[in-house]
């Protein structure tokens, strides 16, 4: 048994119930209705929005953008704006590490007066600083849009 | 010849001082040293459990485990471990019915993982 509900913070929670036979070891014999009532009463907060039972066979989206999940009735969809923000944060985190690395290389180039390397590193750092531009400008309509607009920082 | 032993009551078990009563399977878990509820979960579902009602996926690395029998207060104990290398689990937000597990990687970012939870305390 699974239940979806939307929290007051806008996030989506998914309740996964213990098996009925496992609960019966503690609670004694339960009808299906009593089992569902027990799970719902203890697991779904009183301020939950739109709580609804979903079929165990329903396949939830991949968890890559889990914190961008939103509820549409008994379906789980993505909030693309949240997903974009999550992806931007990931790129920024990766980029910050690279900028630290290139700052170190630039300091060394400055120390030895390597003008060619200094120039190259300035270009690289400028590219890194603009790595989020296409994603920031995007109005996504799918997760694939977000992935397509994400700069590949592995080349650095 | 010794007199017949009686079955320990829940109060006997919780006090843990009686030596002239035997422990029955029904009352065993009432002793202060006994585990009250446990669960083994993936990042999306409850796999095996005892005395657990549900596992709620709140978000990445953020799960709530709800017990089937209330604790007497919120001062109970939980030990939780992660099923993935490099991920650490914190148990917080204790109530009489539930505990929140936050799973974080070495950079302190929330991260999905399977978990194992064991609990002790008075119910």
Write the layout of secondary structure elements.
The complex is a heterodimer of chains A (156) and B (123).
Chain A: E1 2-6, E2 12-17, H1 20-27, H2 32-43, E3 49-54, E4 69-72, E5 75-78, H3 80-112, H4 115-129, H5 133-137, H6 143-148
Helix pairs in contact in A: 3-4
Chain B: E1 6-7, H1 10-15, E2 21-22, E3 37-41, E4 46-50, E5 52-59, E6 62-67, E7 77-82, E8 88-92, E9 98-104, E10 115-120
Parallel strand pairs in B: 1-2
Antiparallel strand pairs in B: 3-4, 3-10, 5-6, 6-9, 7-10, 8-9
Structural account:
The complex is a heterodimer of chains A (156) and B (123). Chain A has 156 residues and is α+β, with helices and mostly antiparallel strands. Chain A folds into two domains: 2-77, no CATH class; 81-155, no CATH class. Chain A has six helices and five strands. Chain A has helices at 20-27, 32-43, 80-112, 115-129, 133-137, 143-148, and strands at 2-6, 12-17, 49-54, 69-72, 75-78. In chain A, the strands form two sheets. In chain A, strands 2-1-3 form a three-stranded antiparallel beta sheet, with helices on one face. Chain A has a two-stranded antiparallel sheet with strand order 4-5. In chain A, a hairpin with a 2-residue loop joins strand 4 (69-72) and strand 5. The longest helix of chain A has 33 residues, at 80-112. Chain A is elongated and about 80 Å long. Chain B has 123 residues and is mainly beta. Chain B has two domains: 1-31, no CATH class; 35-120, no CATH class. Helices cover 5% and strands 42% of the residues of chain B. Chain B has one helix at residues 10-15, and strands at residues 6-7, 21-22, 37-41, 46-50, 52-59, 62-67, 77-82, 88-92, 98-104, 115-120. In chain B, strand 3 and strand 4 (46-50) form a beta hairpin. The longest helix of chain B has 6 residues, at 10-15. The N and C termini of chain B lie far apart (37 Å). The model of chain B has no long low-confidence stretch (mean pLDDT 93). The chains are: A alpha+beta (156), B mainly beta (123).
């Amino acid at each position: 048994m699974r239940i979806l509900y939307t929290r007051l913070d806008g996030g989506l929670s998914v309740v996964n119930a213990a098996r009925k036979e496992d609960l019966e070891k503690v609670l004694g014999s339960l009808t299906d209705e009593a089992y569902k009532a027990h799970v719902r009463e203890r697991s779904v907060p009183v301020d939950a929005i739109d709580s609804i039972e979903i079929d165990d066979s329903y396949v939830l989206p991949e968890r890559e953008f889990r914190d961008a999940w939103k509820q549409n009735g008994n379906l789980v969809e993505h909030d693309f704006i949240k997903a974009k923000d999550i992806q931007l944060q990931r790129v920024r985190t990766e980029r910050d590490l690279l900028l630290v690395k290139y700052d170190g290389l630039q300091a060394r180039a400055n120390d030895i007066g390597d003008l060619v390397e200094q120039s190259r590193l300035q270009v690289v750092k400028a590219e890194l600083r603009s790595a989020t531009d296409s994603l920031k400008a995007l109005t996504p309509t799918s997760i694939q849009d977000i992935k397509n607009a994400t700069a590949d920082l592995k080349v650095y | 010849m010794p007199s017949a032993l009686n079955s320990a009551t829940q109060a006997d078990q919780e006090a843990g001082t009686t030596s002239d009563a035997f422990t029955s399977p029904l009352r065993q878990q009432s002793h202060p040293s006994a585990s009250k509820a446990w669960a083994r979960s993936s990042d999306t579902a409850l796999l095996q459990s005892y005395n657990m009602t549900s596992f709620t996926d709140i978000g990445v690395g953020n799960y709530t485990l709800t017990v089937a029998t209330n604790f007497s207060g919120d001062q109970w104990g939980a030990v939780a471990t992660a099923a993935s290398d490099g991920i650490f689990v914190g148990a917080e937000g204790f109530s009489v019915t539930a505990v929140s597990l936050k799973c974080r990687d070495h950079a302190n970012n929330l991260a999905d993982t399977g978990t194992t939870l064991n609990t002790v305390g008075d119910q």
